[in-house]
Amino acid sequence: MRIRNWMGIALGIVFVALAGLSAHAQKAGGTLVMLVQPEPPSLASYQSTSGPIGLMAPKVYDGLLDYDKDLKAVPSLAESWTVSDDGKTVTFNLRKGVKWHDGKPFTSADVQFTIMNVLKKIHPRGPNSFKEVMEIETPDESTAIFKLANPAPYMMRSFGSYESPIVPKHLLDGQDLKSASIANKPVGTGPFKFVEWKKGQYIRLDKNEDYWKEGLPYLDRIVGRFIPDASTRTAAMEKGEVHYGAYGAIPNVDVVRLRELDSIGVTTDGYAMINPVSLIEFNTTKPPFDSPAIRQAISLTLDRQFLIDNIWFGYGKPATSALSSSYAATGLYAEGMPNYPGKPDLEAAKKVLDDAGIKPDANGVRAKATLDLIPYGEDWRRAGEYMKQALGDIGIQLDLRYEDVPTWLKRVYANYDFSMNVNYFYQLPDPVLGVHRHYGTDQIRQGTHFVNSSRYSNPKLDALLESGAKEPDAGKRGAMYKEIQEILANDMPVVNLHEMKFLTVFNSKLKGHDASGFGAYGSFDQTWFDE
């Protein structure tokens, strides 16, 4: 009897084990084809936060931490971490036995080099994220101790692989960081290895068989396809030729139809970590946009709800300040900012222009300018066409310009050869990380993408930004950010348009693509096909 019982238990254990293996086998394998729109300018996520780079690079690079869907920090290259009582020392205990894709060991020296020599110097947001980091001690290969001049609790939100990829010191030390070959042939510690970039067609990443997460990744391969034509992207998704598209890769007008298909899933999840806001940047150093009046008039004229309803098909919320209303939960968002009307006010806009001496000529034209458009798809072209028509009603005559990504980035952020630029910025979980870079004088960093291209400078605002980053008292910090928003609403170096709500479109067989709080910018190490 006992023998039979033990035999039954043993058979049960074998059955359970086989079932587990079968479940794992069902998840393992397959090639994910995802839309990367447009083709990225590089894969150097350590120096550019361009959206298309963010889709591919976090599959190759790891961060010290990751963040779950509740935006809580979870271990990645750091197994654990502690923060001192005074907030000035953060100790990371690093994962042992991790290897770079070229076989070299990952150590604390890579962390020190990445933060101090790369992200603090050339990353768009790194100088703010790690501003308080004075040094990083490395007492051994698996310990990195961050020494801060002042507490910086916001910093703990910045250690994901998208935001702060850890890069190999042995391949970048002594190199020109902006031209190193690793920019287009990345070597990371992540779940997928870079294999090939066929210009104009695709980027191929293959499974890292030596990944430090046992049993992961599930997929054999990820292929990022570049398909310039929007209708062709939609058709490819519908036919099952591609499995995943995020950040407007499938235009909202097409999503309305695709979401009715059983084979297609649509979600707005996966964007909470980034707080995206669409906007207009101005070159404030040259006429006519050196005048705050014309910038205020543009904000008073544009119908934000029209843009949301007709360009983005109801997905979004009108911007009402320099800060997203998502910050209301933290007490930093302030309501009732001037020059952000609930509805367009053309008469007020014309009066602002008249009072500033910006008068119409005999043809009713007050100013002429070229409006550059972010080259990320048809929605932005349509938004530009609306703005051209709307601003014509107050005498601002626009020409539209739409170029490829490298040309656009160089024009706006390297050459400053623009007047108005339609774009979107990630405000991220704290304004120090996502907002300060847009307005601080120290963020006029020629050649660095997605910083203060307007070259706006206001010493009073700079002082408030500095104080707001360090203030531990929530009430005092809220008062500082209210004043910051009031200054920016009047000076208006940037006109915020709408708080964006992106859509991710995916094949319904695709699972686990939303495991990270970064959504499409996650590693996809837990992504699999339910065939």
In short:
The protein has 531 residues and is α+β, with helices and mostly antiparallel strands. It is 31% helix and 20% strand. It has a 6-stranded mixed β-sheet with strand order 14-18-13-17-15-16. Strands 1-10-9-8 form a 4-stranded mixed β-sheet, covered by helices on one side. Strands 4-5-7-6 form a 4-stranded antiparallel β-sheet, covered by helices on one side.
* Main CATH class of the domain at 276-500: Alpha Beta
Please state the average pLDDT score. Answer: 94
Q: Based on DSSP secondary structure assignment, what is the total number of beta strands?
A: 21
Largest sheet, spatial ordering of strands: 14-18-13-17-15-16
What is the level-2 CATH architecture name of the domain at 276-500?
A: Roll
What is the CA-atom radius of gyration, in angstroms? 25 Å
Poorly predicted runs of 5 or more residues: 1-23
Percentage of residues in DSSP E strands: 15-25%
Helix tally? 15
How far from one another are the termini?
A: 43 Å
Biggest β-sheet description: 6 strands, mixed
The CATH homology group name of the domain at 276-500: Dipeptide-binding Protein, Domain 3
SS-derived structural category: alpha+beta
Please bin the fraction of helical residues.
25-40%
